[in-house]
Amino acid sequence: MRLRITFSKSGTLRYTGHLDLHRIWERTCRRAGIPLSYSQGFHPQPRISLAAALPLGFIGQAELVDLWLDQDEDLNQILKDLQAAAPPGLMLTSIQSIDPQQPALQTQVNSADYEVVFLDPVDPLHVTSSLTGILSCVSIPRQRRGKDYDLRPLLKSLELIRTDNENSPILTMRLSVSPSATGRPEEVLAELGFSPENTRITRTRLILDNG
Description:
Layout: E1 2-9, H1 18-32, E2 48-50, E3 59-68, H2 75-85, E4 90-98, H3 105-108, E5 109-118, H4 124-135, E6 141-144, E7 147-150, E8 155-161, E9 170-176, H5 185-192, E10 199-208
Parallel strand pairs: 3-10
Antiparallel strand pairs: 1-3, 1-4, 2-3, 5-9, 5-10, 6-7, 8-9
Helix pairs in contact: 1-2
């Protein structure tokens, strides 16, 4: 039985890395008494598969994890047991059974939506002007870890949403996710002239190939 769970990651759990999050899921399943399947070989590992890694400090609003079970179980009971065993900051929102023959979860993710809240007042007109400039570019050369890359093809959409507070608009963006190149919101912010340290970034959605 293969399950896909949607969950949020917030609070102090925002500062938990990808590998540690995997271990947290393993412990949560064990505490909940979930009959996980294990891989074959000399060092069997629980079959838990997380989607795209979430950078440290980011909030995850609709993250995805796949679990393989040794036997069929009631979905509602699994969700209830897992939520009761989950640590603070890990909130399960939905669960579904999926075809075990589907491709690996990581390979199905093609893009991600982000929401950026500015912690300091900003001028919406200035931000809008910066957005117009970056979206009109054919190429946006950037460098990460000593390697040159083009940010522009990774940027699928970028929009400023006005709020009741005139100086606190919300920036939304959709960035490409692939094994060869993944768009990072902090790189977009840097190109716009903003420091990620003065923002709160939430990944609101992961988009899969099947929608």
